[in-house]
Amino acid sequence: MRAHSLATVALLGASALLLTSCASSAGSATTTDTTSVDTPAGVTIEMPNDPQAALGFYTTDVDMLITLGIPLAGTQPVRDDFTAFPDFFPQEELEGLAVFGNFPEFNLEKVLEAEPDFILNGLGYEEDLDADLQKIAPTYTYNAFDGADWRDSFHQAAIDLGREAQWQAWTDDYEARVAEIRAELDAAGIDPVVADVSFYEGEAGTSTYGVPALVFTDLGLQVSPMMMADENGLPAGDGTKFSMEQLGQLDAIDVIFTPVNEDGSGLISEEEALTSNALWNQLGFVQNGEIYGYNYEMIYGSPSGQRAFLETVATALLG
After folding, report:
1. At 225, is the pLDDT very low, low, confident or very high (cuts 50, 70, 90)?
2. Given a cut of 90, is residue 276 above it in pLDDT?
3. What does the pLDDT average to over 32-61?
4. 124, part of any domain
5. C-alpha dihedral over 210, 216, 220, 223, to 10 degrees?
6. Exposure pattern of 127-151 as b/e (b: 16+ CB <10 Å)?
7. What band does 238 get if pLDDT is binned at 50, 70 and 90?
8. Which residues contact 49 (CB under 8 A, 6 or more apart)?
9. For residue 1, is it within any domain?
10. Can you give the pLDDT at residue 224?
11. How far apart (Å, rounded) are the C-alpha atoms in residues 46 and 148?
12. Which residues are CB-neighbours of 16 under 8 A, at least 6 positions away?
């Protein structure tokens, strides 16, 4: 939970009133047609029927707005450690947009300056954030990071916002591509054991969190039990951690996918602590070069992220 200063909240309130006043004075130039929408955050908003300047509060929200065919405001937020939108996002729709850092620290003043007429906010776990955003524009807040399949909340948002046809079009296209890749894997007799593996603070780790596990499952791949087990062998979203002395336990995995930075740096096979470890060097996927990096922003589910990771897997396994 981030605390906003009283001065910031007061500024937002005053500025929002000013924007409302300006909009009202514009007369027929501003649409007043709205529909009442009950959001997952328990708030009823007056959603513009034809929004023309929507803002996605987190990067994945921007991608969802594009997929749902909702026009964007000219300024959109990105993560503080990004300088632009992920390269796997639809670049044509993003061309010419200005950006500002908005995560992990929030910049509500910049959100206000973007003058959105609608906000899509997937950070529903942040208490009180919705109330601040409602001062700026009608905001649909939901929790995109609750550990569930992100497509469930995306589908519900599409229904609530009157864009289910756009959601269905994306879903149909994605499922058709999954079926195509699966058929190619079957035809080639390719059926490896796969896992999402990362390295952090001296430990290797696997996890079922996010897009990789969803894509593995959609493709019907053999997912390493290590991704789904805690120290007692029970399913766990946090997966399993391995110390440097336990790396040999990864020997049943044939292919790994691993998150890297925006510029492609940080590949797990470049970690000196691992490359100097005998157990790591004996692993089959290390010796066979079956280690594939992907932009870590793909983990946090969005339409383009899901599709991009699907293509990453297809390229890795099929060449």
Report:
1. confident
2. yes
3. 95
4. yes
5. -100
6. eebbebbbbbbbbbbbbbbeeeebb
7. low
8. 31, 33, 34, 35, 162
9. no
10. 86
11. 28
12. 112, 135, 136
- Give the model's pLDDT for residue 263: 85
SS (H, E, C) the chain: CCCCCHHHHHHHHHHHHHHHHHHHHCHHHCCCCEEEEECCCCCEEEEECCCCCEEECCHHHHHHHHHCCCCECCEEEECCCCCCCCCCCCHHHHCCCEEEECCCCCCHHHHHHCCCCEEEECECCCCCHHHHHHCCCCEEECECCCCCCHHHHHHHHHHHCCCHHHHHHHHHHHHHHHHHHHHHHHHHCCCCEEEEEEEECCEEEECCCCHHHHHHHHCCCEECHHHHECCCCCECCCCEEECHHHHHHHHHCCEEEEEECCCCCCCHHHCHHHHCCHHHHCCHHHHCCCEEEEEHHHHCCCHHHHHHHHHHHHHHHHC
Around Cβ 316, how many Cβ atoms within 10 Å?
18
pLDDT band at residue 228 under the 50/70/90 scheme? low
Q: Which of 197, 207, 184, 150 has its CA nearest to residue 293?
A: 197
Asked whether residue 187 falls in the same domain as residue 286, the answer is yes
**Cα–Cα distance measured from residue 123 to residue 87, given in angstroms and rounded to the nearest whole number:** 22
Nearest to 309 by CA among 154, 150, 166, 148: 150
Task: Tell me the two tokens of residue 118.
Answer: 């609608």
Query: What size, in residues, is the chain?
Result: 319
Structural domain harbouring 103:
6-162
Number of domains in the chain: 2
**Domain end call among 162, 187, 222:** 162
**pLDDT value at 24 more than 60:** no
- ∠ at Cα 97 (109, 162), nearest 5°? 85
Q: 28 pLDDT exceeds 50?
A: no
The answer to whether residues 231 and 295 belong to one domain is yes
Last residue in a domain, options 128, 162, 196:
162
